[in-house]
Design goal:
Radius of gyration: 20 Å
Number of strands: 10
CATH architecture of one domain: 2-Layer Sandwich
CATH superfamily of one domain: HIT family -  CDH-like
Strand content: 15-25%
Largest sheet: 10 strands, antiparallel
Oligomer: single chain
């Protein structure tokens, strides 16, 4: 089984709140004159348009709204050096390997990582390619943004989730970064020591009744590990309908007490009226 597809993530991020530094006086523009005015106006228009697009999407159910915001954040970052309204942007490796981190305007207080190139969702086969960007590793690295004042939460509190084509509301790939609900956290803690890193096991989580496939990753980081590829190559049920797959990666500890991850997969039924989402395992707020 191949776990390839990692892309090095050793680059610096600029956060949305990071101020621009300049030797110019507060009332002067480092670009000067009309150019400075246009620069400021364009930046303001971009951020206002991004906020309006995403917030309006909740009402009109625009499945491309997130993609619009991702582009706005990237363009704003390239023009001003600030990713606002996103929290972070990283395009050091180019748009093809870049991503943004943002907090959705409605719903649970989790974070979202979304690529800066157009990828509809989990059903796209390129996510499992050997040279695919390691979006899960990038998302796991962003978990410090969940804690107060950058405090890193215990790994057992945090999970990453990608929803199926049936369960998601946006047709732009996004990984939810959040904290597990208490009951799911306890269930995973009890389950993790019984799982293997080489074979899948059928399980269910409490209070949700969602049938799941589960296994461990077998290492303490996601560097060099592509969960999209693991699922595509080793779980036959997922290959039958890639668009129906939900993927969850949760921090855990092995039977030996070592840091590890539990990989969970739920496959939605297209004939059912209700499609459980992978992000259902996340709670309303982090501790």
């Amino acid at each position: 089984m191949g776990n390839g597809g990692a892309v090095e993530n050793g680059v610096q991020h600029r956060e949305a709140a990071e101020p621009m530094t300049s030797s110019a006086k507060p009332d002067s523009d480092p670009r000067g004159g009309a150019a400075g005015g246009i620069f400021g106006l364009r930046s303001a228009l971009l951020t206002v348009a991004a906020l309006a697009t995403f917030s309006a999407a909740a009402a009109v159910e625009n499945r491309e709204a997130l993609w619009g915001v991702v582009q706005m954040c990237r363009i704003n970052y390239e023009i001003t050096g600030a990713a606002f309204p996103c929290l972070q942007a990283n395009v050091a490796g180019g748009v093809r390997h870049g991503y943004v981190i943002l907090r959705p305007p409605v719903g649970n207080p989790d974070l979202i990582l979304s690529p800066t190139r157009k990828i509809a969702g989990v059903e796209e086969s390129g996510l499992a390619a050997e040279d695919a960007p390691n979006y899960f590793d990038m998302a796991w690295s962003a978990r410090s943004l969940l804690g107060r004042d950058g405090e890193r939460l215990p790994r057992e509190d945090v999970a990453l989730a990608v929803n199926s084509e049936l369960a998601r509301t946006q047709d732009q790939l996004h990984i939810h970064i959040g904290c597990l609900s208490n009951d799911v956290k306890q269930a995973i803690a009890a389950l993790a020591p019984e799982l293997s890193s080489s074979r899948w096991r059928r399980v269910s989580l409490p209070a949700r009744g969602i049938p799941l496939w589960a296994r461990t990753i077998g290492q303490d980081s996601l560097a060099g590990v592509n969960p999209f590829r693991i699922v595509a190559e080793s779980l036959p049920d997922a290959g039958e309908d890639p668009g129906a797959v939900n993927i969850v990666v949760a921090g855990a500890r092995s039977a030996a007490g070592r840091d590890d991850f539990v990989l969970l997969v739920a496959i939605d039924n297209r004939s059912s009226r209700h499609s459980p989402a992978g992000s259902d395992v996340l709670g309303r707020a982090c501790p």
